[in-house]
Amino acid sequence: MKAIIKLALCLFVVSSVSFADAQTDAAKKEFKTASEKFDQAALSGPRQIAIFDEATLALPAGDKFVPASAAARLLRSMGQTVDDKRLVGMVIPDEADAKWVAIVGFIRDGYVRDDDARHWKADDMLRSFSESTAQSNASRKAHGFSELEVRGWAEAPTYDAATHRLVWGVIVRKKEDPDDAVHQLVNYQTVALGRDGHLVLTVTSSLSSFTADKSIANALLGDIDYVSGKRYADFDKLTDRVAEYGLAALVVGVAAKKLGLLAVLLAFAAKFSKLGVAISLVAAAVARRFSKRKAAPSGTKGRQEPH
Asked: Which of 55-59, 118-122, 212-216, 288-292 is most confident?
């Protein structure tokens, strides 16, 4: 069993009330199969990953990319709704004790005008985000997921007009969890605007590890480059489609749609002691196996995770 399977197993447990009690045999079987396919499909860096016909991701050594089909199957096995037209795939670290996961998607809604960036108010955006989260809690609870609460900005929305890139981070927690940095989750969004739409890279981690994981997210965003003719500057006002929303609406709208996924990704803030004896034994076995891995050759090029 590899680190990816361990990661998926943890996600599945936390997204459910109980691995043993809340899942049918069919659901368990599908999750196991989806996890295996997820592992088999993972592509190790360094390599170039095509993002539709829009951009490329320079996947570094030390990270793995799982294409959309395998990533979607795993997410669906955990009760998540997936838009196949938007999902590009998932990026995960190739290590035993993964603390973050990145979801990559491309929204082909057209060119997003950025002229409202100078006028937005972060407090108003956070209030709107909090209200939409509260309104969706009834549906979330009805589907067996925890109710979520927005706690504030980990990083208020900022837009770089020179690179046409937008970042923000919102703090979310499950209502039943303790109100501390370990149990609070940061949903960190990085958006790269293009001619036909925008690429969204979501990294989720616990608030306690956000500083380190934020730099990973920014590095991943820096590894993405639009191909010639698809860049924001290539926009043709005479022929190209313009999105029906601006940057402010993009922040609130995109973030709100990601909260269903957050209910699953809260696994990264959980301790194995809460996952049950069987899962703890699996985690310990995997950790022992990967602690014995040989160090990568000194000449290997890759992103180093900050300490």
From this structure: 55-59
Residue 274 burial class via C-beta count within 10 angstroms: exposed 0-12, middle 13-18, buried 19 and up: exposed
Tell me how far CA of residue 85 lies from CA of 11, 108, 250, in angstroms: 23, 9, 18
Q: Is the pTM of this model over 0.70?
A: yes
**Separation of alpha carbons 217 and 192, rounded Å:** 12
User: Averaged over 222-250, what is the pLDDT?
Assistant: 92
Q: Specify the pLDDT at position 289.
A: 33
- Residue type present at position 252: V
Q: What per-residue confidence (pLDDT) applies to 66?
A: 93
d(CA 258, CA 160): 23
Report the SS3 class of residue 274: helix
Name the fold adopted by 3-291.
Protein Transport Mog1p; Chain A (3.40.1000)
Q: Which two tokens stand for residue 111?
A: 């060119």
Q: At a CB cut-off of 8 Å and minimum separation 6, what does 61 contact? A: 44, 45, 46, 296, 300, 301, 302, 303
Annotate 213-248 with three-state secondary structure: HHHHHHHHHHCEEECCCCEHHHCCCCCCCECCCCHH
